[in-house]
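Project outcomes to date are best conveyed with an example. Our students and postdoctoral researchers have been running inverse folding experiments weekly, and each run begins with a structure described purely in tokens. The record below, which covers 186 residues, was selected by the lab manager from last quarter's runs and is presented without edits.
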């Protein structure tokens, strides 16, 4: 049994040694060919200009001079197109518990969160915020974000931020006996 194991080990070592010797002789003969090929590839890459994707949609200006473009109806569409740093991203709508609109693509990690006053862009793959305080021109003038959550909650004709929550409730109407009706207890 021991002779078998020793013979197997010797066979494996001899095969490995022969492959190493073959690799040594072929690697010394081809270094000049390998050096020339990458130089040609680099020259070819420099000659071909990279065409940037033209932004489409509504411009959102962010802090630090960043900007993104959103194409699609945020109040209705389930997938919007976001243009960021020369690339277009397809972002599907996600359900949230907070009422904010969230568009997140698992593959690219792009995560756009929109609240009535601003939007924020995150890269979930890298784990950091890419842009903050993003607003359209209308939002900068005081209008709420054009989102589904905002459209569902806002009364007709009043933007979200313009609601008067401090107005007193109307007085209860008198009942048939002439006395004021008692408000229902919670």
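After processing, the design step wrote out the following sequence:
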């Amino acid at each position: 049994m021991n002779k078998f194991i020793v013979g197997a080990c010797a066979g494996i070592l001899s095969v490995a040694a022969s492959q190493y010797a073959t690799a040594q002789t072929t690697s010394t003969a081809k270094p000049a060919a390998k050096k020339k090929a990458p130089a040609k590839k680099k020259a070819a890459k420099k000659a071909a200009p990279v065409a940037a994707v033209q932004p489409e949609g509504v411009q959102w200006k962010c802090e630090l001079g960043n900007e993104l473009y959103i194409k699609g109806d945020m109040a209705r569409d389930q997938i919007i197109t976001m243009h960021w740093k020369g690339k277009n991203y397809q972002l599907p709508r996600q359900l949230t518990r907070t009422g904010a609109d969230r568009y997140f693509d698992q593959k690219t990690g792009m995560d756009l969160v929109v609240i009535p006053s601003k939007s924020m862009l995150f890269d979930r793959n890298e784990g950091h915020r890419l842009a903050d305080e993003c607003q359209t021109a209308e939002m900068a003038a005081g209008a709420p974000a054009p989102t589904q959550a905002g459209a569902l909650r806002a009364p007709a004709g009043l933007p979200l931020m313009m609601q008067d929550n401090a107005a007193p409730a109307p007085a209860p109407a008198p009942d048939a006996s002439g006395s004021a009706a008692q408000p229902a207890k919670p």
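Strands lie at 58-61, 67-71, 79-84, 87-94, 101-104, 110-115, 118-123, 128-134. Residues 2-29 form the longest helix (28 residues). The training component of this project remains on track.
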